[in-house]
# Entry
Amino acid sequence: MTSGQPREPLPRDREPTLTIAQVAERTGLSHDTLRYYEKAGLIERVGRSTGNQRRYQAADLAWLEFLLRLRGTGMSIADMQRFAALRAAGNVTVADRLAMLREHRAELAERIRALRRNASVLDDKIDHYQRLLLDEHEIEHEQPGSDETT
Amino acid sequence: MTSGQPREPLPRDREPTLTIAQVAERTGLSHDTLRYYEKAGLIERVGRSTGNQRRYQAADLAWLEFLLRLRGTGMSIADMQRFAALRAAGNVTVADRLAMLREHRAELAERIRALRRNASVLDDKIDHYQRLLLDEHEIEHEQPGSDETT
DNA sequence: GTAGAACCTGGAGCGCGCTCCAGGTCAAGC
DNA sequence: GCTTGACCTGGAGCGCGCTCCAGGTTCTAC
# Structure
């Protein structure tokens, strides 16, 4: 124990593990969120130390990171639960998982399109305000106020 | 009153108005949400009939539709409140409003970029599952199960 | 052995953006 | 006058995704 990193006894056939604090730091999730995700079934029950403290393995971290990608595409907890349950059920659910991801991907594409449409309205409004400001400066306050609609 | 549309007496210098039901239908918002937006100050107090019922004008509808664009870009109610308050304060706030929209636009661009990054991880996973399924079919069930990581 | 930090559990609480409800008013048709 | 339905108000409630809390255990350093 010379480095600052607390480690398990490491019985040599077991890979090194991470504490909840380390996983929190690596993923950006809070301790509470990590425990919540486990309770919610998003991640399978994580291994424990002899004293019942969580010890995450590399696979747990990888899965968490994928969950974060799903969350980052706007997938709901409920859908992630469904996906996690399929995953836990083994390889026979690969087709189902593929279908879920494809559907989600399509929705995401649509959401991105909608965002871009709305963004362009935003751009128009920005242009409009810019022109208003320019005109205001050109005319150098003649008639302050009272032409408000936008 | 020959058509099914209930109208105000229409004193001729007043434009035609819309009931809350008509606005709900046009905007896709519920009656409750319309009232909530008004209570929250997102829209200024809408005109009323003699019987205290809301009568929306074209300008109200236009503003609502712009709000919906803002909402559609992920702007929070709190920010929309700020924006609406600036608007209500008149033309002197145009520069502030421009600044708000620009900042929001920048955040939106970043959010869209993040979505696309996450989407590409999703695409990779989809490819991965597709390949898994293909291999499975090629090999025609030899060793069902037990190579699960993804 | 002991202090203090890190961790555990179950459950309550919160901020957001609505949504619903109770109890009432108003307008139109019969 | 009566019924029906659209509308009104204030306020409670809800689903989501966490976040916080109390009370207890465990781990690490000294």
Observations:
- Helices of chain A lie at 20-27, 31-39, 58-72, 77-88, 94-139.
- Residues 94-139 of chain A form the longest helix (46 residues).
